[in-house]
Amino acid sequence: MRTKSLTPGEQGNYETYKMRRGAVGGHSQEMSPAELELLESLLRTGLDPAFPHYREAAPAPCADRIEAQARGRDMKMNLTIILPFYMNQDMLVRQFEEINEYPREIRERLQLIVVDDCSPTGKRADEIIKKEKLKAKIADFRLYRILTDLRWNQNQCRNLGAREATSEWLLLTDIDHLIPTDTIQSIFRTELSSTDFHTFGRKKYDGSDYKEHPNSYLMTKDLYWLIGGYDETFCGHYGTDSMYRRRAEKYAGRIHHADWKLVNVGRNDIPDASTRTLKRKEGRDTSFRESIPKYKHREGIKEVQILKLPWERLYL
After folding, report:
1. 13 and 131 in one domain?
2. What is the pLDDT of residue 95?
C-alpha cells in the first residue's frame, strides 16, 4: 500500500505515523489490544512510543527460488542512489566503474544523483566527469552542486538528492561505500517493507568483515520526508548525522540486512575515498550539538531546516 507523497509537516507526520505504525506497518499483529491503545494515547500526546524498532531481515531465499524471484520482482522497483561528493576524483571514477557493471535490467531502472558539496575549481565533480569522460550507463544520471562552501555539509547533499530523486526508493550512503552487484541484486529481488527503513552489513575493500555504517539507508522517498530529512541547522560540524537515525526510529522500524554488504573503501585503497582536507576530531564538537537544540527552542524554530544554502543542477 502506498500513501500520498509527503513533505515535512507535523500533521502529515502524525497522521501517517498512526497509519504506518498500525496495520499498514505490520506491527499491530505483534501488539496486544492494550499495547495498541497505549500507542494511540502516546501519539495523541506527542510522546515517543516505547516499543522495539529493530528487526533482523528474513533469511535469504533458498537457491531454487532466486530465479523465480528475479523474474517476478526484479523489474518492479525503481531506485535512486544518492552520493555526496567533495574532492573525491578517483573514488567517483571507481563508483562509475562499479555501477556500470550492474546487470542491464537493473541499470535500466536505476537513477544516480551526485551532489558536489562546493568542491574548489579543479576538483569539482563536473570537471572530473568531463576530464575522465565518465558516463553512467543507467536510466538517469543527475549532477548538482552546492554553491556555498560549508564544511561537513553532506546532510544538505542528501536532502537535495532526496528532493530531486524521481524514484520511489532511495539508497543513501557515502561516496567511499561501493554497492556491489550482489547487494544491488538482492535489493531488487526482495519484497521490501515501505514502512520501515533498511540498513546494511559492511565489509572492507579486502573482503574482511566490518562494522555496520550508521548513516547508510534504503527507504522510500515518502518515508524519508515523513522523518523530515536531515536537519541542516547542525551542518558545519562532523558527527551530527546520528540525529537523523534517532528521528527515523520514532517514525519507522528498522530492518537490518546483515548479508547485504556495502564495501568500505579506505584511504589506503583509494587516497581520496573520503575527505582528507578536514580533520574529523576538530569537527566533532559536542558543545555545538548541545547548543543548537537550545537555540532552536529559544528562537521558536520547530521545523527541520532543509536546503538552507543555494544550489544548482549541472548539465554536462
Report:
1. no
2. 98
Q: What is the pLDDT of residue 37?
A: 54
* Bridging pattern class, strands 110-116 and 140-146: parallel
Q: CA 159, 164, 169, 170 torsion: positive or negative?
A: negative
| Beta-bridge mates of residue 81 | 112, 171
Q: Are 185 and 199 in contact (CB under 8 A)?
A: no
Hey, is 40 helix, strand or coil? helix
Torsion sign over Cα 235, 236, 242, 246? negative
Residues 174-183: pLDDT tens digits?
999 999 999 9
Amino acid identity for residue 99 in this structure:
I
State pTM to two decimals: 0.75
Q: Measured between alpha carbons, how far is residue 273 from residues 176, 177, 178 in Å?
A: 5, 9, 10
Nearest to 181 by CA among 109, 74, 106: 106
Q: How far is CA 128 from CA 89, 136, 190, in A?
A: 6, 13, 35
Burial pattern 171-183, b for ≥16 Cβ within 10 A else e, equals bbbbbbbbbbeeb
Contact predicate 261/183, CB 8 Å: yes
Full domain range(s) for residue 29: 7-51
| CB 106 within 8 Å of CB 77 | no
Each residue's pLDDT tens digit, 37-95: 554 544 444 333 333 334 455 444 443 433 444 444 444 679 999 999 999 999 999 99
For residue range 18-38, list pLDDT tens digits in order. Answer: 444 343 333 334 445 554 455
CATH number of domain containing 61:
3.90.550.10
Cα–Cα distance, 16 to 195 (Å, whole number): 10
> Among residues 185, 172, 181, 180, which one has the least CA distance to residue 75?
185
Same domain as 36, residue 95: no
Residue 283 pLDDT more than 90? Answer: no
The distance of Cα 208 from the centroid of its chain, to the nearest Å, equals: 24
Instruction: Provide the 8-state DSSP code for 73.
Output: H
